[in-house]
Specification:
6 helices, elongated, mainly alpha
């Protein structure tokens, strides 16, 4: 095993939060430009729409890369914390069946923790459970689990709602003002909530690692 750093991935967290904020703004501008192009299909709106879409794709690609790098680091930390909690439970009870206090033990592959975000349909439900499992590993060390569950669930509802509304709006060529407003509102809400989720998990891991600096991560699967 390699020893776990005594600090959480704050630098990655800050990059991820900044990238998410930029992506949220880029999506709003992209949606407005696309709608303007459909309403007034001249050369200028067409160029603006194409540029907005291209910039959005680049920004989202970079955002996902940074976010998944942050999450993979948090997943490795959570596996170590979850394993340590289970060991402590077994020691206290004198049994070999301790499972910690979280809803889901953080025992899955680090590869799956990343791939689950990228597989169509699977990424509508699996990542939520992964994020909850990471947060529960922190909760086992004293964090408020109920508040974390609420934050993650509201964020995931906003994110999936944004995805659904975006797909529906595209089938209507993106010209519906109500759908445009709904998409923009859900996009901004999801971005703000994602930033809060990153803050909560990173801060929670910081507190957990300070409480138990000798924790070591499991060997990556």
């Amino acid at each position: 095993m390699t020893r776990l750093a005594s600090t959480p991935p704050w630098l990655l967290a800050r990059f991820a939060q900044g990238a998410i904020a930029v992506a949220g703004v880029a999506e709003v501008f992209r949606a407005v430009a696309v709608r303007a192009h459909h309403l007034h299909p001249s050369d200028a709106p067409s160029r603006d729409s194409g540029l907005g879409s291209m910039v959005f794709v680049y920004v989202m690609t970079g955002t996902f890369a940074v976010f998944l790098t942050w999450f993979s680091r948090c997943w490795a930390n959570a596996r170590a914390l979850s394993s340590e909690t289970e060991t402590e439970t077994e020691t206290e009870t004198g049994t070999g069946t301790g499972t910690g206090t979280g809803m889901d033990a953080v025992t899955g592959s680090g590869t799956w923790a990343v791939v689950a975000w990228l597989v169509p349909l699977v990424n509508l439900w699996a990542p939520r459970r992964l994020v909850l499992a990471v947060d529960h590993a922190n909760a086992a060390r004293g964090a408020d689990q109920g508040r974390g569950d609420l934050l993650v669930n509201v964020w995931w509802s906003a994110w999936t709602g944004y995805a659904v509304v975006t797909v529906v709006s595209q089938t209507g060529q993106g010209t519906s003002m109500p759908l445009l407003v709904a998409s923009g509102a859900l996009d901004i809400a999801a971005a703000v909530l994602a930033i809060l989720v990153i803050q909560r998990i990173t801060a929670g891991q910081g507190a957990a690692l300070r409480a138990d600096p000798a924790v070591e991560p499991l060997t990556p699967a």
